[in-house]
Amino acid sequence: MKIHSTFILALASLPCALAFVSPFKNVQNSATTSTQHFVATDPVKPALFVDETRASVSKYYGQELTKSDDLKTNACCTAGAPPDYIQKAINNIHPEVVARYYGCGLCLPQYPLEGANILDLGSGSGRDVYIASQLVGKTGKVIGVDMTDEQVEVARKYLDYHAEKFGFANVEFKKGYLENLADLNLEKESFDVIISNCVINLCADKEAVLKECLDLLKPGGELYFSDVYANRRVPKSLQEDEVLWGECLSGALYWNDFENMARKVGFPDPRLVEDAPITIKNDAVERLISESGNGALEFYSATYRLWKMDLEPHCEDYGQAVIYKGTIDRYPSGWLLDKHHYMETGKVFPVCGNTFKMLHDSRLKEHFDFIGTWDHHYGIFEGCGSSIPFSDPNSEASGKGAATGGCC
């Protein structure tokens, strides 16, 4: 399965990941066992629909799931082994918090975060919050938001445990809805990074979530998140399936809808960091999808980064380039901005104007040398297009940094 852009204002009401429809081939999808159907067919009552969806997702994640092994598919658990420094941070977290983790990717940008303010959307039992807590240190702060009572209770239960373990207290958990973050009295433009791990796809109004994020980010900050996406729009019949919602499939956005939605809200240049097909591996779920006539529907777990800065809608060429200094911890040989921008240490790397700004107008500036000005425009950056960004899992070129010759 793949993840990409356009936003489908459909049926997601809990924090789960944004879904991208993938261009991958020959990926089999699965369907679920005893599925209960909850449908909001009356367009005049959207509030009721949202309430029912929230209640369903909250019950699924708060009562029916007690650990990640209870999930029927791997849609929310596709991440590979974490880097050593992240694994060390996880080892410091209470086992109950780790056991109730349902994420689909590593949702922490890979650059120094000391002193940063981070917001985690759909924080669940708090695993990613407690990882980030260790990375930002005592001068930073991490806030987690989740709508599920049982998950927030687990997260708060171990606040003192982790404060003692880390040697400082810099964490807070709030109960609330991602579409209504303004209700939580969070300071606007106060966060360096907003993260989310397989949660936005559970929200009924994904556009509202993105708008809230834009308001809360500092200029030069980013929304860095993993979610589930589809290679085409998920049909209404599958959107109305309760279990498929809980498993982060029915709420997946068509990748192009997501990217268009992000641009509309104010994130002009969404960047795909990495993606992986989702293999459902559940006979009942696979049968449900296939027998509904949607056997070609594919899903992907994908990580995107959306920057809050003045960017152009397309990659424009100003004759600019950057040189990575090799100074980011744990990345002395090179650093990956996104799937098409792996910058080797010391090598001149041609970039479009947007990539230039992402590196220059953010926390990354000190790690790069910048070449060029804005005096001359040379047109669209060569090779930039609008085709699906995900890799064919059968292609030899798939994987991180597959295209490393220049921008896009």
UniProtKB/TrEMBL annotation:
The keyword Methyltransferase applies. GO terms for biological process: methylation. Residues 115-265 form the Methyltransferase domain. It comes from the Eukaryota. Keywords: Methyltransferase, S-adenosyl-L-methionine, Signal, Transferase. The keyword Transferase applies. GO terms for molecular function: methyltransferase activity. Residues 1-19 form the signal peptide. This is Methyltransferase domain containing protein. It comes from Nitzschia inconspicua.
